[in-house]
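Box 3.1 A note on notation
Throughout this textbook, protein chains are presented in two layers. The first layer is the amino acid sequence; the second is a token string describing backbone geometry. Keep the layers aligned when reading.
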Amino acid sequence: MGLFKKPPKPQRRANISPSVSAPIMRYYRPQATSKNTKKENNTTKSSADSRNNARDGDSLLSLVYRWFGVIVILFLVIANTTISEAIVKLDTDNSDFANYRSLQEYNTGINIIFSSSIRNKSKFTLNSSSFEAEIRKKFPEVSNAVVVTPLAGRRLQVGLSLDKPLARLQQPKNNSQAVLSSNGSIVIIDTATVINEKFADLPSISIPNINYSVGDQILTSDEAGLTRLLISEFDGSAPYRYKINSLEYDVQKREIRLKFDNVSFFAKLTPERDSREQVGALVSSLKSLTEQGGLPSEYIDVRVDDRVFVK
């Protein structure tokens, strides 16, 4: 039994076909020489420098544009908020007003006021009320001054309204005269020759023992109102409306003596009574006396209510 052993079973071998391995591609970067490396580094550095320079140039140009815009805006703001000068306009065409001063005198004087304070030269700091008060102080004949700040432009607009001249105030001691405005204040003082040339059509007023200077209020509101009414009513437009020659004020007696052209008598009035009642009585009485041919030889007195005295 031992001599006959079973032969071992043959082992199955895997039928593996030989695999063909994929070709392996290998890339090798040739080692650069030191000369090529240096050249390549220089090229890279030059490119970076160029880019940096370009960026710096763009930044600088952008900064210049930005500051240029700021400067332009700042210039426009300054140009639109500063004032260079004042332009004056008179709010009347009446020739009586032109006798006070020329437009150039007003323009020069107001620009002197304007230049006296740096606050006047900015639209933000200009005080219109204060500026207007200074104008009225410098020019007493100005009844109203209106300062208009322009929204666009650099010229300050100043409009002036002037009081109408009322009468010439006599001052015989030094041969000077003054002009009273319609509110009874002194607006101009000059020699009698100059005042008479400019204001020859105005009646004269004399007030004994009075000293005055420009801007002084000589007549009270009642006295000025009575004087204005007399001048408007007695203008020579009718035979009984004799043109006024002069007025004499007696302050202590509160009496006004009204003298006319081409007649020898005068009228007595007072600021203590209503102006319209006195002037109305005077006009109607003179009209009646003129029609009757019996004018006063010395005076006509209308100071008492409902009474007229004739002498």
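The longest strand covers residues 155-162. The longest helix spans residues 34-81.
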